[in-house]
Design brief:
Blueprint: E1 10-18, H1 23-35, E2 40-45, E3 48-51, E4 62-71, H2 75-88, E5 103-109, E6 114-115, E7 120-121, H3 130-139, E8 144-145, E9 148-149, H4 150-156, E10 162-166, H5 168-171
Antiparallel strand pairs: 1-4, 1-5, 2-4, 3-4, 3-10, 6-7, 8-9
The structure holds ligand X6L and magnesium ion (2 copies).
Amino acid sequence: MRAPAVHKLSTAYLALGSNLGDRAAMLRGALTALRSTSGVHVVAESAVYETAPVGGPEQPEYLNMVVAVDTELGPEALLERCLAIEAGHGRVRRERWGARTLDIDMLCHGDTVLHSARLTLPHPRMAERAFVLVPLAEIAPGLLVGEARAEALATSAERSGMRKLGTLAALVPED
Ligand code: X6L
Ligand code: MG
Ligand code: MG
């Protein structure tokens, strides 16, 4: 009898954002696509926040949320899947930090530390962004972001320009 293949499950945190088109539908579509991905299991989702844009040109307000996935995919494979889901939602990369239909950023992947041309883990700038920290702290308060717990960073984060809208399921009908 052949030994069963062993797959290591890692928990990855993904930050989702949208500020073009039907923003809530974009987030819903991202969740549906992640749930349909073999080897990806959505295990938690934060509330959805409407947030003032940070950086870049003048652009519309974002909807942001964070999801946790348990995954058998390695960091590079999960990144590929996230980029494909963005493209499938009409993401067009024009200027840096410009408006987008859907952005999916990998915040961390287990305890992987990685610096490749395409991906840096943990995400180097997540500790500075309230639109990431506040939803992240809802689903992973004890997660270490550098030296600090996500909850501590979120508590001290500047929340002006952030409005909690509620769960995604309450914003858009289930599909
Ligand atoms: C100084 C200068 C301090 C620039 C911060 C922060 C730049 C974040 C870009 C920055 C700076 C970013 C989202 C967004 C973007 C989003 C909201 C970025 C890249 N994505 N604003 N801006 N939500 N609210 O998902 O994150 S573009
Ligand atoms: Mg981003
Ligand atoms: Mg991105």
